[in-house]
Amino acid sequence: MTRALTLSREKxxxxxxxxFYLLFLSAxxxxxxxxxxxxxxxxxxxxxxxxxxxxxxxxxLDTSHSVRNILLNFILPVFILLIATGFIAWKYGRIYxxxxxxxxxxxxxxxRLMLKHLNRLxxxxxxxxxxxxxxxxxxxxxxxxxxxxIWSFTLLGYxxxxxxxxxxxxxLELSFGPALFLLVMxxxxxxxxxxxxHLFCKYGCSFGIMQSMVWMANSKSMVVGFDKSRAHLxxxxxxxxxxxxxxxxxxxxxxxxxxxxxxxxxxxxACDDAQADNPEGRLIHWVSNEEATAVDRQAASFTIKRxxxxx
Length: 311
Description:
The chain is mainly α. The chain folds into 3 domains: about 1-30 and about 95-220, no CATH class; about 30-90, no CATH class; about 220-310. It is about 60% helix and about 5% strand. The two termini are about 35 Å apart.
């Protein structure tokens, strides 16, 4: 039953990730959302969004009308979005990161490629077996460069007319500004994707850190909990949950040690696989409310070390 729920959860997460990733790539091309630097205004769902301050009407508006339009058309929507985002982070943590964020989707994709071709999840970890050939390294690096260029083109499309950009790129007639942006951003993103994917998520993403801080303020928010009463079963497992975590966190540790947890659930899958022959199932679960409060007090890693020493 637990395994079936895990598979169902993974399918839902894959759908949400893929859908949001496609939305991220297609939003500027389809005029779903972007800022047109040529026209000087936002475009939302194909329509110009000028905060009710169109040039033809602006001269006829007094100050009170202008302020009201800005409040209703910009400040209020942003405020509602921030409240909704804060509430979700307060209750569930960085669930946006693990279930929607395009960058985290790339993190997982490159992780799988590195594990398959380089026997490691990140550049900074020692591989199980050294790779002496350069071809696997070049392959993974090439994928990072391709994804970085696609991202650079997409990001530029959020502020520069995508159709004009596509035409100029196809005919190799890019002006200096867009060409420089594509070059510099591709280099920066390639470095990020190849060397520092999860490090950026942990230390460089202000939106992710904000979610983590809100999440930590709620002791009853959803978190991965560990069944200490069955900790002895971990002795037969080589910390597969920790190895599987894209953020390289101590999954069985206290909540404070999992400050940047993205609630992706990959650690749960790893524990499912490790305990496949155990009728009681995995040792880690998502918990909330009073059970979540207990996670912040437990010292699971210390318990496991003590058990191993005693044997």
